[in-house]
Specification:
Layout: E1 3-14, E2 17-28, E3 32-37, H1 43-51, E4 58-63, E5 69-72, H2 84-89, H3 94-97, H4 101-110, H5 125-137, E6 143-147, H6 155-168, E7 175-179, H7 183-189, E8 192-197, E9 200-205, H8 208-240, H9 244-247, H10 252-263, E10 287-297, E11 303-314, E12 319-323, H11 330-338, E13 345-350, E14 356-359, H12 374-379, E15 385-387, E16 394-396, H13 398-404, H14 409-412, H15 421-433, E17 439-443, H16 451-462, E18 467-471, H17 475-481, E19 484-489, E20 492-496, H18 499-512, H19 523-530, H20 548-578, H21 587-618
Parallel strand pairs: 3-7, 3-8, 5-6, 6-7, 12-18, 12-19, 14-17, 17-18
Antiparallel strand pairs: 1-2, 1-4, 8-9, 10-11, 10-13, 15-16, 19-20
Helix pairs in contact: 4-5, 4-6, 4-19, 8-10, 20-21
GO molecular function, one term: ATP binding
InterPro entries: AAA+_ATPase, ABC_tran_Xtn, ABC_transporter-like_ATP-bd, ABC_transporter-like_CS, ABCF_ATPase, P-loop_NTPase, Val-tRNA_synth_C_sf
Keywords: ATP-binding, Coiled coil, Nucleotide-binding
Length: 619
């Protein structure tokens, strides 16, 4: 496997901190690397160093002769006075670039709703970003550095980009290094992961899931080592404190060793540690959309139907993800739920105990607090906060609550306007949860959050007992925190028993059949699409409709199956934990206990099959 580029003993300092110290790594042909780490730890800076856009203070980056490097920077801009065609393919005639399958694929995948002859300066920010990405991908590169390439892409666009990068080179050719918070994308594309933290770059094999497993094992081993160190430290401290007269006679190397143990306390990584915050009581009725529809005035006169015939009865504790292309009507649907949008047809019924809160994309909740210190913002809400309940209840001050959200003492006195995007996002979520809503709407909640913080937020949402509605292009997040998904297709709300995969199949069918809902394709995209290969199979046939009584029976059985699966899984976990306490020489007892575990696992497998059958029935 040929070597493409390498970094040797990189050192980089900013005025306030050291970003990298003695970092050495290499990139070979066939490498597909994802970079993860906390916001501000240097992920984008590492890309710039490797791509030659930034010079290190010490060390060097060496590149094999003749290697072509392409990079998508977060700040890359396209000349606003050029047309989309000029920005993407330059002055090449249409009959030339249209004959290149790669160029056609890029244009169809990224620019389907972008006017081909339109001026770049007239496009939205997201469209300009996609034009920049398309202009990069149509080129021939040996190494691609991509910084947040999934920004402004919907689920369908992210799936296309993953497929394009998988097929762009042969398995043993080219190299890719990507920074993104989209964990599904990392798993789909990457074969290796670099974690940037504390001035170093730590390599792991595999994509995001493999990285998490390896990091858990690393942290487990570190915790065991730390426990031993703490025990030794306690003994050394007791030994040191026996009294001044005795201490003078102790060997100096023992004193130095004890002092080193005391000083060598590792820093705590940022993590969210909040358990169940208070939630206002929610009755049986939440929000019902009954044959609801919304029409908007069309630019040329008449009306445009955004939603029609929407029948959606939101249940207490429901956790639902909403999918749809940009402009499909997701925000309008959420507006019907919150009351911000009035239906043109049908009606919306809300329960009397419903308290809805929305985590918006714009961070609007923080605008009035821009000049206030972080601690003052939370203190203005309440003097103290109770986390948990019963014997596990803990009362926290505003400062302690913020520290659990990963804010340092220094950041507590920082004005809100000076926080990073991820810190503002955490503060925004906390302020919303402190209002004790029982229905929480998350509108693109992953913006500005790193993978560690996303995992922590998901952990927090797991323990949140209210109703949760999520609109996001982050497939990993949707599948992680929601139990079911719906999609807006052709102005209708459609349930997706098959989840995101079913949605992508529907979109592929729609495009092959020339269906609406994806935006008006430009002439260039139509040319490109004409040469694209279709490889997605047809969606499964819809299940026959159930009567009201049959549906209630099926729903009751489904709940029973879910409870039984959960109980069995707890029993299996407890039995496996108990193996360590058994006499390892008592083979009969060990075999009997293992047989019980195997039987329980077989029952879980049968119940899961029944669960799938019931979910298909309920549609």
């Amino acid at each position: 496997m040929a070597h493409l580029l390498g970094a040797e003993r990189l050192h980089l300092e900013f005025p306030t901190r050291t970003v990298f110290d003695e970092v050495t790594l290499g990139l070979d042909e066939g490498d597909r690397i994802g970079i993860v780490g906390r916001n501000g730890d240097g992920k984008s800076t590492l890309l710039k160093l490797l791509a030659g856009r930034l010079e290190p203070d010490a060390g060097r980056v060496t590149v094999r002769r003749g290697i072509r490097i392409g990079m998508l920077d977060q700040t890359d801009t396209v000349d606003p006075d050029t047309t989309v065609a000029e920005a993407v393919v330059g002055g090449i005639d249409e009959h030339v670039w249209a004959g290149d399958p790669k160029v056609r694929d890029v244009i169809a995948g990224l620019l389907g709703d972008v006017p081909w002859d339109g001026r770049v300066g007239d496009l939205s920010g997201g469209q300009r970003r996609r034009v920049g990405l398309a202009a990069l991908l149509v080129g021939d590169w040996d190494v691609l550095f991509l910084d947040e390439p999934t920004n402004h892409l919907d689920v369908e666009g992210i799936a296309w980009l993953a497929r394009h990068l998988q097929e762009r080179w042969n398995r043993s050719d080219g190299a890719l290094v990507v920074v993104t918070h989209d964990r599904w994308f990392l798993d789909e594309v990457c074969t290796g992961t670099w974690e940037v933290h504390d001035g170093i770059v730590e390599p792991f094999e595999g994509g995001y899931a493999a990285y998490v497993l390896q990091r858990v094992e690393r942290d487990r081993m570190a915790a065991a080592s730390e426990a031993k160190r703490q025990n030794l430290m306690r003994k050394e401290l007791a030994w040191l404190r026996r009294g001044a007269p005795a201490r003078t006679s102790k060997p100096k190397f023992r004193i130095d060793a004890a002092n080193q143990l005391i000083e060598d306390v590792p820093p705590v990584r940022d993590r969210v540690e909040l358990s169940r915050l208070a939630v206002a009581r929610l009755g049986k009725d939440v929000v019902d959309l009954l044959d609801a529809g919304v029409d908007y005035p069309a630019p040329g006169g008449g009306t445009r139907t955004v939603l029609r015939d929407v029948e959606w009865r939101i249940a207490p504790g429901e956790r639902t993800g909403i999918l749809g292309v940009n402009g499909a009507g997701k925000s309008t649907l959420l507006g019907l739920v919150t009351g911000a949008v009035t239906p043109t047809h049908g009606r919306v019924k809300r329960g009397t105990t419903v308290r809805i809160a929305t985590l918006s994309q714009e961070l609007a909740e923080l605008a009035e607090w821009a000049d206030e210190r972080v601690s003052a913002v939370v203190a203005a809400q309440r003097a103290s906060y109770t986390i948990g309940s019963g014997s596990k209840a803990v009362e926290l001050t505003p400062g302690q609550l913020l520290e659990r959200l990963g804010f340092t003492n220094q950041q507590l006195s920082t004005p809100v306007r000076d926080l990073s995007g991820g810190q503002k996002r955490r503060l925004q979520l906390l302020l919303i949860l402190l209002t004790e809503p029982n229905v929480l709407i998350l509108d693109e909640p992953t913006n500005d959050l790193d993978t560690d913080m996303l995992a922590a937020i998901e952990d927090l949402l797991d323990s949140w007992p209210g109703t949760l509605l999520v609109v996001s292009h982050d497939r990993y997040l949707l599948e992680r925190v929601t139990d079911q998904q719906f999609a807006i297709v052709d102005a209708k709300l459609r349930h997706l028993p098959g989840g995101v995969d079913q949605y992508l199949e529907l979109r592929a069918q729609q495009q092959r059949g020339g269906g609406a809902g994806g935006g008006a394709a430009s002439g260039a995209a139509r040319v490109a699409a004409s040469g694209a290969d279709a490889s997605v199979g047809a969606a499964s046939a819809a299940a026959p409709a159930l009567s009201g009584a049959e549906r209630r029976t099926a729903e009751k059985e489904l709940s029973s199956v879910e409870r039984r699966i959960e109980k069995l899984q707890q029993q299996i976990a407890a039995a496996r934990d108990g193996f360590a306490e058994l006499d390892q020489s008592d083979y009969e007892r060990l075999n009997a206990e293992m047989a019980k575990v195997t039987a329980a696992e077989d029952e879980v497998a049968e119940l899961e099959e029944r669960w799938f059958a019931l979910t298909e029935q309920l549609g």
